[in-house]
Amino acid sequence: MGGQQSKEGETLEFSKDLPNVPIQFSPTLLKTLSADPANRPVYSEREVADLLARHVAHEVDKVQRGQQFARELREEVDREQVTRRAEELLERHKAYPLPTPDPTIVAKKQAVIACYKANPDRPLDCWREAAEFRKALEDTLAR
How much is the pLDDT for 20? Predict the structure, then answer.
């Protein structure tokens, strides 16, 4: 390998750590490496700046796409967490049955409603029924 030039398509062997493992180099790479530096293309500052600008724009686009993906992933995780929490709360709510209303309170409530229906023009005539209903509620809540 040293001073000799490799021919196109020739297989070079690398045997430092892995003996008999062939490594092939593309003809383009070999031609580029063996070319005289004076024959290599020279780029103007404008060409280099354009090339760098395209490369930076491409990398910025990749970063932005990655950030957008991360945002969407976070939103999906948040939605899943909210859904899971809502399901847990619903299950917990189902575990506690609704209390059955006290029959006394139901009777007093019906009396107030019946009084209001019987006296649509004079609702103040139902003050006794309303007071009894309020008293029954207070007694129930005090227990």
Answer: 63
CA gap 18, 7 in Å, rounded: 23
What's residue 124's pLDDT? 92
User: What residues does each domain of the chain span?
Assistant: 103-142
Q: CA 57: distance to chain centroid?
A: 26
Say how far apart CA 22 and CA 72 lie, in whole Å.
46
Contact 115, 126 (CB under 8 A): yes
Pick out the chain residues at pLDDT < 50: 1
Is residue 22 within 8 Å of residue 10, measured between CB atoms?
A: no
Which residue do the tokens 């619903």 mark? 90
- Give ∠ CA 38-41-45 in degrees, rounded to 5: 115
pTM given for the model: 0.35
H runs (alpha helix) in 96-126: 103-118
